[in-house]
Specification:
With about 425 residues, this protein is of the alpha/beta class. It is about 40% helix and about 15% strand. A hairpin with a 2-residue loop joins strand 3 and strand 4.
Length: about 425
Amino acid sequence: MVLEQPLAQPAGILGKRQKIGRAAASVESLRLLIVTQFFPPDFAATGQLIEELVQQLGRQDVKVRVFTGQPGYAFAKGSAPTVEQHGNVWVRRSRMAQLFPGRIRGKAINGLMYTLRAILHLLGRAYRYDVVLVTTAPPFLPVVAYLANLLLGLPYVCLLYDLYPDIAIELDVVKAHHPIAKLWRWINRQVWQRSSGIIVLSDSMKQRVAQSCPAIADKLSVIHSWSNPGQIVPIRKADNWFARKHRLIDPFVVMYSGNMGRCHDVDTIFAAAEKLRHEPILFVCIGGGAKRQPLIDRVAAAGLDNFLFLPYQEKAVLPYSLTACDLSLVSVAAGMESLVAPSKLYPAMATGRPVAAVCPPTSYLGPLLTAAQGGAVFDNGEGVALAQYILELSHNRDKAEALGAAGREYVQANFTPSVISQQYLQVLQTASKASM
């Protein structure tokens, strides 16, 4: 199958794209480029979600190319093939290795170098694509698609995982009136206004972006993250090798799996664990992040023995690690509810276990869990209430099972790869046709 047949140059500063090329694209398969720094074998959740998305789109006869970076967070692989093909999906990786990905400065340098490579890749190959889907991994990456559109007229859709500089401002890394913050917001507005569509992960994120740039309100689409309930299925702990390996069968296990970063609330979880220190309840934290080591230090200082810390798990292990619990935890720190949307919620619900969310009352997590009837929601700082809920479920396993089953059913109806990929495809097709 020919994926690189050149068409006329797209409209832009360097000239208008010929109409015959766009007309052909509207009839033939959509030719999509996805630009994102993270893609498997990286274990970053954003990359794993993109992999599932492109697999679904490829099955729908979309010709997908992914331009990504070399792995920086993989387990045993320091590099990956420069080019891979799986059916309609081609993956091309930058040849540049990641430098010190565990350090903030290293992450920034890696993101900048990848962005520069992405600019060169896209400007040299724009004629091969009908539309670009560009992520905010790294946060300044959408500038790449903006330049391709400005120079060559190639339409693009922004996928906003999180909102910068707002997160940096909320974390007090930079002041709201600092020149860097002002410049970043100005760039955001330019990028968003020139885009053909903007995908955000929650209604609260949509409201935040619309307030920041009212002119693009009609371009915003809310498309949730998802989980694959065909891969993550309920497994009894007694039948789960991961639970046996880590001695999780007997205690009531409360699991936090994923990034423990600056945007997440671990204080409320710690407070609940302190209240339950004498109960047969174990808190299992799988993953990493900026708040992981401080939490480990606090647990040690308090003399708590009801915590188990494990590293990130390979994707193949997730169906077992995620189901090796009786209750899953998801958290968002105060002030972050409209800036981030934890993707860990959806696989947690797919396990058939109830979910307890710790978040501000304005977070989208509350309405979603309420609609699913799959768990409970607690405000930041409500450690006592969270502890009481955990204790209640540990004494009422039937209720826990009913909540978990309801949550899984809700995911199966609303947040599967097949359902979500259709929503993406609609936005991408609309963006492609709008530029004709």
